[in-house]
Amino acid sequence: MFRPETWSSNSSMEINDSISVLKGIGRKKADIFHEMGIETIEDLALYFPKSYEDRRSVTPISELRAGSKVLIQARIVNKRMGANRFKKKSPLMLNVSDDSGMLEVVFFNGYFLNKLFDIGKEYVFYGSVSENLNRFQIIHPEFALAGSSDDVRGIIPIYSLRQGISQKEMRRMQMDIKDIYSGIKEWIPEDIIRKNRLASLDFAISNMHFPSNAKKVLQSRYRLVFDELFTLETGLMYMKGAYGEVRGISIDISEGDKFISRLPFELTSGQVESWNEIKDDLKKHKKMNRLLQGDVGSGKTIIAEAAMLSAAASGYQSVIMAPTELLARQHFDTFTRDLSSHEIVPVILKSSMTASEKRMATKSISSGDAKVIIATHAVLEENIVFKNLGLVITDEQHRFGVNQRRKLSGKGEGVNILVMTATPIPRTIAAILYGDLDISQIRTMPKERKGIHTYKCSRGERERVLNFVKKEIKAGRQVYVVAPLIEDSDSIDAKSANAIFDELQDRFHDYRIELVHGSMKSDYKDKIMQDFASGEIDLLVSTTVIEVGINVPNASVMVIENAERFGLAQLHQLRGRVGRGSDDAYCFLMCYIDSELANARMNIITSSMSGFDIAEEDLKLRGPGEIFGTRQHGLPQLKISDLLRHRDVLDAAILSARELIERDAKLENPESIMVKQKVKKMFGSDISIDL
Ligand code: ADP
Ligand code: MG
């Protein structure tokens, strides 16, 4: 039998050598390894097991159960070759016995294995137990002579491999390069290793491949997950250059405090906490870079107003950028009302203004007369110049790219940045996606807000839902019906907004029904939304264009067709469009498939009103790969880290990455050279940046 010790005498091997210097690696295997991203000995050493099998204890044959994977130690009682047309494909059948019982071990194509087994000798076998005619069998177990230095028993690493490379081969190869693990240089700066009490790199690598106990594996994994997340975060921070210009504008916050003390209501605890965090940032001569997360209706706007007022009172301009004209107008109305007692007249800037309106707005922005500015993307244009911009806020951040945020803040120097979002990204994920941002969360809702009765409904219940809709409209309420598609499609079995519009127009012909979707002109969409807001429209059929929309307190019912086709975050946001008034509100999730996953997802929505909880549940259900996969956000794929499971490591890695970047923003000190190489290797060509 092929024994590791007989072929591990590769003493001249170097860590950067190609894996083809290893015995047993021909062209074909090298190609497979290449597909797995393994080119060099170092790559191989850093290819870690995805899990482990505990094969330390031997199970007596008398205690076997079908279906379980077991390690047994037994003597060969007899062996025979079964019949096959081709001699070399004949099965080998062994009868083995420990003191407790007998078992059959079968190898198909066992011809060549025959000579490895001697009657009377003891072997260990590892495999799945199956039952055949009331007798237990193990088919194709791993095996070794008992007492030999085998790799069948113990804590056995399991690698994720491709066809053509077996677990056993992989283990042998690791055995072969084991002696040169220590040739992989430590690359994390020493103080960071010390502070985080990280295991040494070669300890971690050896224990991942050759674990002696569970504790060492945990220590090792922590170290290596840290490596990966530290590289990721350092890379993000380096690239975003967030620490290139640390000095920022300091803003006096007393005006914001005054504004808040005069509000007719008390801030919720989440608002208080977030406001305090924002105040701390604003006061400092350091750029604020903060993400403010809070469900729709949690009261983020008040916080934005307080911050912008503070900037104005400190002599600085501030701007809040909204993703749609509608939202901008809504903010403009709110701000105009709320800030009048502070003698601030907000200025609005958007594309749909007349040329002369635009000219006036542009002028007051460049002269510095405009202190508080509400804008759409129009503000990003080159010709919009600020006199002394001190604070930039983007509302509904997920509608903007990082570049737009930077472009806006680039219109001043040391500008404080606040990004607001109602998309409930779990803190862990946000920390990764917005690696350069501090995070505030408003998890509380203003007290008097009512819950929204949410129901999952089947096809058979649609009639009842529509009757209910009619009743509500009769009572003077307004209704949204949302569909996943604009038009019917041959390939997708789902309701379209067009078809539903036709259907409901027939059905509710006494009422005003309108349709709005993404491929309509924005003027027209705006007009429809305005009419809905003012109560002229009773029922609005739409696609998700209303996702980030207008506040219509009289709207009491949200019907979502083919709810199974929407993401949970999206469903939650859609639901948030109703329940903004004092009446009871309802959300019907029309779910037309009956799968376990669909049911589980609908249950999450019906049983929770917190966007944060929903996002976390969704994450658990689908795994981070699907919704919040780093890949989808243009980030590199993570090899051993799991953003959900390794939160604590992530926090530590972020702190350390920040420390390193703070003392060496360009990663050019000797201690950072290898870190930079790691970053480069991780990000590769995924992100075109000059490293
Ligand atoms: P968001 O922008 O987070 O979706 P808004 O700021 O628009 O939410 O707030 C929604 C509504 O709740 C507004 O009418 C606002 O005046 C009100 N509001 C905000 N904070 C409170 C509070 N602490 N108590 C009562 N009402 C509040
Ligand atoms: Mg808002």
Report Rg: 32 Å
Would you tell me the overall average pLDDT? 87
State the share of residues found in helices, binned by percent: 25-40%
Strand order across the largest sheet: 11-12-10-13-14-9-15
What are the bound molecules?
Answer: adenosine-5'-diphosphate, magnesium ion
pLDDT < 50 runs, ≥5 residues: 1-10, 624-634, 685-691
Strand content: 15-25%
Count of DSSP-assigned helices: 21
Index terms:
691 residues; alpha/beta; 7-stranded parallel β-sheet; 6-stranded parallel β-sheet; disordered N terminus; disordered C terminus; binds adenosine-5'-diphosphate; binds magnesium ion
Commentary on this structure:
Helix content is 35%, strand content 18%. The chain has 691 residues and is an alpha/beta fold. Strands 11-12-10-13-14-9-15 form a seven-stranded parallel sheet, sandwiched between helices. Helix 17 runs antiparallel to helix 19 and helix 18 packs antiparallel against helix 19. The two termini are 49 Å apart. Bound molecules: adenosine-5'-diphosphate and magnesium ion (MG). Adenosine-5'-diphosphate binds next to helix 9.
Task: Give a topology summary.
Blueprint: H1 27-35, H2 41-45, E1 51-55, E2 69-81, E3 92-97, E4 102-107, E5 122-132, E6 135-139, E7 142-145, E8 154-158, H3 167-177, H4 190-195, H5 201-209, H6 214-240, H7 254-261, H8 269-283, E9 289-294, H9 300-313, E10 317-321, H10 325-339, E11 347-349, H11 355-367, E12 372-375, E13 389-394, H12 402-409, E14 416-421, H13 427-433, E15 438-442, E16 452-457, H14 462-474, E17 478-482, H15 497-507, E18 513-516, H16 522-533, E19 539-542, E20 555-560, H17 568-575, E21 585-590, H18 596-607, H19 611-622, H20 647-663, H21 673-683
Parallel strand pairs: 4-6, 9-14, 9-15, 10-12, 10-13, 11-12, 13-14, 16-21, 17-19, 17-20, 18-19, 20-21
Antiparallel strand pairs: 1-8, 2-3, 2-5, 3-4, 5-6, 5-7
Helix pairs in contact: 5-6, 6-20, 6-21, 7-9, 17-19, 18-19
The chain binds adenosine-5'-diphosphate and magnesium ion.
Adenosine-5'-diphosphate is lined by residues 265-268, 271, 294, 296-302, 422, 446.
